[in-house]
Amino acid sequence: MVPMENEFFKNIGKKTGVNMKDILDLANSLQSANFKDENTVRNVIRRVSQIANKPVSREMEEKIVQSIVKDGKQLDFNSISKMINKK
């Protein structure tokens, strides 16, 4: 990583409390994930919840899984974060 980018990510991490390595690892894992598989979607939701330090109730997890697996909505970090913050 270029030093300027590294500094940028460190600053974001300090301001948000979110480890940028965790975000990048999650983003890499999303590229090859099968979002039609309920277990995969649940694992992603749990990882996002953990990274964002926002607990997700079973009910909210079910709603998110339903939205993605059964309704075919796009899955990305921003979408899950919005769903988690609605609770």
UniProtKB/TrEMBL annotation:
InterPro entries, A to Z: SpoVIF
Per its UniProt record, what Pfam families does this chain match?
A: SpoVIF (PF14069)
In Swiss-Prot or TrEMBL terms, this protein is called Sporulation protein
| Native source species | Pseudoneobacillus rhizosphaerae
